[in-house]
Amino acid sequence: MATNGNKPTGQGKGKIPPHKCIPGTGFTVDAFRSGFQLPSVRAYFLSHAHSDHYSGITDRWSAGLIFCSPITANLIQHILGVKSEYLRPLALRTPHHIHGVEVTLIDANHCPGAVIFLFRLPNGKRYIHCGDMRYSAAYLEDPLFQQFRGADAVFLDTTYCKERYTFPPQEVSVQYVAETIGRSLLSRAQTKLKCSSSSSSSRNAKGKADCEEGGAGGPEHHRGIRVESQDSGGNDARMESAGARLQEQQGQQQQEGGHHQGHEQRQ
C-alpha cells in the first residue's frame, strides 16, 4: 500500500475510487469495504445511513474512527451494532478540525442525518463532498456554501443528472404525501361501523359473528362492537357487505321483537 499526496491508494481490488478520496488529506467518504480499509486512511467519513453508502461497516468494525452526523451515528450504532468508541458524531454547521483540516457538515436535504461535507485544507484548497443530496435554491443563499463558491472540486454522487429526471420541489412532495395520508385516514374513519346488540338474544351472537367476519378482529368482549377497515382495498368491500347484513338483521330482529311482544300481550 502507498500514499500519493495523502490520497489513500491501493493495488488491484483494494484501490479506493478517486471520488471517495479527498485530495491531500488521507480522508475517505463512504468507503468502508474491506479493500478500502488501508493504513493510509487517516479518517473515515460517512455521509448518511443508507446501505449503499455504509457498505462494509459491521458490528466488528475497528479500522478507524467514523465521522458523521449525530443522527447517522445513532442509526448505524442501532442498525449495525457499531461500537461507540469508533463513532465521532459532529454537530452540523460548526467547523471541526480533524488532522489539521477544517470540516463543516450541512444538511443534505436527503434523509435524516444526511450531510454534505465541506473540507477546507491548511493550504487553502476547498472541497465539497455532497454524498446524496437534494438540491434546493436555498443553498445559494447559505452563508456556509457561499464560502465555498469556486471550490477546487465538487464530489457529486447522483443518479439524476439527466434532464429527463425532473422532480417536484420537496414542499410539493411533502404536501402531496400529507394530503394522501389525510384522505386515507378520512376514508377509514368513514368506514367504521358501530354495532349494538342485546345481551340475551341468540340472534345477537350471529350478528356479532357477522360483524367480526366483516371487520379485522376488533374488540370482541364489548356489547358495542367496533369494526375498522385495515386497508382501502378488499377490507372496505367486506366492511360494506357486513354493514348491509347487520342492518338487515337488526331490522328483522326489530320486526320479530314486535311480533313477539304483541303475542305476549294477547296472551
Task: List the SSEs and their pairings.
Layout: E1 2-4, E2 7-9, E3 21-22, E4 27-29, E5 43-45, H1 51-54, E6 66-68, H2 70-80, E7 87-89, E8 96-98, E9 101-107, E10 115-120, E11 126-129, H3 143-146, E12 153-155, H4 170-190, E13 193-195, H5 202-214, E14 225-227, H6 234-266
Parallel strand pairs: 4-5, 5-6, 6-7, 11-12
Antiparallel strand pairs: 1-2, 3-4, 8-9, 9-10, 10-11, 13-14
Helix pairs in contact: 5-6
Radius of gyration: 31 Å
Q: For the largest beta sheet, what order do the strands appear in spatially? A: 3-4-5-6-7
Low-confidence stretches: 1-5, 9-13, 195-200, 215-239, 259-267
Number of helices, where a helix is a run of at least 4 consecutive DSSP H or I residues = 6
What percentage of residues falls in helices of 4 or more residues? 25-40%
* Shape label: globular
**Element-by-element helix/strand order:** EEEEEHEHEEEEEHEHEHEH
Portion of residues in beta strands equals 15-25%
Structure description:
This protein has helices at residues 51-54, 70-80, 143-146, 170-190, 202-214, 234-266; strands spanning 2-4, 7-9, 21-22, 27-29, 43-45, 66-68, 87-89, 96-98, 101-107, 115-120, 126-129, 153-155, 193-195, 225-227. It is of the alpha/beta class and 267 residues long. The strands form four sheets. The chain has a five-stranded mixed beta sheet, with helices on one face. A five-stranded mixed beta sheet has the order 8-9-10-11-12, with no helix packed on it. The radius of gyration is 31 Å and the shape is globular.
Outline of the structure:
It contains six helices and 14 strands. The protein has 267 residues and is of the alpha/beta class. The strands form four sheets. The chain has a five-stranded mixed sheet, covered by helices on one side.
